[in-house]
């Protein structure tokens, strides 16, 4: 057999996906996408795949062919001495990475360190996958401090290859003088075109972490305006003060709202059943990359209602729900006119979109094409 291509995925916040009892951070769309990619790529004997995650005291392990390794001493311990120690040890570990290519979606100073050490000094390669529209707006990161800003900017402008999720991201990067390949988020897709949605005892669903840009208060407003429907909010916190405060504010607002149920956290292995049972998924974010929740809605044959985002104009191209252009009255009208037939038709269109665009096998092949072109 020819020498294997060594690919490492660097995403500290994905610990919980491999270690559900030890990981501390909630896994969002970026983490789930990279997890799916790693498992799919490891099926190819030509590839040796590793995945580096945060150190929560767990042991390294092999998982479905993926070598899961902790980044030693990279954790949430407080204190300036701990912070300096973590940075020194992180640099030493990057020097020792032996992968031919590192794929990361971490929009932080870590990107700059990876590109500077692994790529520039060691002559290996780094692929950066944009997770969010903010990622191409370098000035957005200035308030994180000079070191963070300079390292992130260096990484963005010098990584061997960039991956965008949408045409808007690709066009924005082109204006910065950087080429990008569009690769959508990938999921395992089962062939269940004949799926029939059960609308009895169903609910309208909202899923996101507690962040101001997710605007959970708008979902509360929809629940208040539509008392004849049941609403379900799944909103984990990320242990930052702002996130905890937002969660507390939402809990205060819904205390006397009988048609809205709040669940603080659902493991990633269990979350799909909520999308399967919902009659409608609602996104209230002010900005996104391409939400994994849209894909999970499609897998569940669930229509989508989006208040403020229309990534790649999917609502114009597929009759999978309603884009409201920041108009809550339009959202309320859409909810009030839902029928079982509309739910079934839009749910089928939602599934069709995912089937045509988000197969993990196709996504993995696109990444392999980039890897084999740059090494």
List the main descriptive attributes of the protein structure presented here.
globular, 2 domains, Rossmann fold, eight-stranded mixed β-sheet, 16% strand, single chain, 14 helices
Query: How far apart are the termini?
Result: 18 Å
Q: Could you list the spans in which at least 5 consecutive residues all have pLDDT below 50?
A: none
What CATH first level of the largest domain would be assigned? Alpha Beta
Number of domains: 2
H/E series: EHHEEEHEHEHEHEEHEHEHEHEHEHHH
Order of neighbouring strands in the sheet with most strands? 3-4-2-1-5-6-7-8
Mean pLDDT: 93
Global Rg:
21 Å
How do you describe this structure in short?
Helix content is 41%, strand content 16%.
What is the topological layout?
Elements: E1 5-10, H1 15-18, H2 29-41, E2 47-54, E3 61-63, E4 66-71, H3 80-96, E5 101-104, H4 109-121, E6 125-129, H5 146-158, E7 161-164, H6 167-175, E8 181-182, E9 204-207, H7 216-225, E10 231-234, H8 241-254, E11 260-263, H9 272-277, E12 280-283, H10 292-299, E13 304-306, H11 314-317, E14 321-323, H12 328-336, H13 340-357, H14 360-374
Parallel strand pairs: 1-2, 1-5, 2-4, 5-6, 6-7, 7-8, 9-10, 9-12, 10-11, 12-13, 13-14
Antiparallel strand pairs: 3-4
Helix pairs in contact: 2-14, 4-5, 10-13
